[in-house]
Amino acid sequence: MHAAIRLPQRIPNLNLTIYEKNPEIGGTWYENRYPGVACDVPAHSYTLIYEPNPEWSEFYASGQEILRYLQRVADKYDIRKYMKFNHKCLGGTWNEEKGKWKVEIEGPDGKKLSDECDVLITATGILNNWKWPDIPGLDSFKGTRVHSAVWPEDLDLSGQNVAVIGNGSSAIQIIPRLQKIVNRLDAYARGTTWISPPLAGSKVEEHNPGGGNSNSPPKNITNIVTFEEEQIRKWKQDKAAFDQFRREIEYEQHLSYKALLQGTEDQKAGEAFFTDMMKKKLEKKPEIFEQLLPSFPPGCRRLTPGPGYLEALVQPNVDFIKTKIKQIHPDGIETEDGKIRKVDVIVCATGFDVSGQKYIPLTGRNGVKINDKWAKQPVAYNSFAVDEFPNCFITAGPNITLSNGNLILMFEKVVEYAAKSIKKMQREGIKVMVVKKEAVDDWKEYCDNFFPRTVFATKVFR
Fold it and tell me: Which of 4, 158, 320, 384 has its CA 20 to 30 A from that of 432?
């Protein structure tokens, strides 16, 4: 979306075509529709920098509300004219003689077609490569089986006996919603995880009368924090006040960076704070705290605030199951201790492949394939440029993600860099622009020396 807005603004003589596999704008917020889907970044910072939105109804906006925001922005800038919906990119091949990319596309009728471009920008995102978990017998289950990434809109789980497999961000959002309506919920958690206080938590407390203070875990953040019409009206009328609110949110998120450096006082204090909060919320079932507590520090995996998740786990109709699943039967799930729990529905909240090693099949110079190049370790200069892949910019490349802020800002910066590069190519008659291997190697060396000092270098699983 940002590319569809900014590139025509920055480059007046641009011929822009965007191929979108879905029938509408929205990406992950169009595709993900499971109960409780929401962003884990405060909504007022989760916007395009030039399109603030004072009308968010919740501190952590729902997926549906984010989708509506994106569609409003698309309408405002009239970007659909650049887009071909229901067109999936199958791959691209660089032609050295022409200095162009040949892109293969699958149209809405399944027919294959091709296109050529001087510059290729891949903007496929990160959370879109899902698959069923590799569990013996999964296909034999006779009840309802769903994956969080392709949730049926008409699915009603009221009064059902439900199993949720996984304890990543999707499961953490799904379980509080289902717990309230199902008869019984079995929560299968293979790994451990930190459930964090809300990002920019002091702002949550300001808008939540039950919230505690900055020196102790908030007392009542089970419910989603909402904004009253009066507050929204004030922000719409006072742009300066609203901009200040956004800056304060961003500042508080970025300030947490110090807690990501191993051995610092901030890192130790953060871990103690998270531990205390989780222990208090799991007091009714202290065994869950022991089973859920990670051996790695907070931030090693992306933090998930998960309002209501821990509270749901201690409810009478929820069983937290740490024992590994052995196999699935037609009517239930068997764990390695021999217990079989019968269920009506299995929800696989098992996430996406985020390894970066199953990227769009791109073939660069000398027949080099990006997935072969990235087989051992995905590496790209500043996350967006790969040697041997000329005139190509990747918006969601290796190391672009961050644990203490807004990923949209990172995407914006890649697009701005691409726009400057394209303008330079036009202005100076440059046919081919490609990052040097030495620059990529230098960047990799920098990362390899920087990350061992952070929590990201610690092992995730016990």
Answer: 4
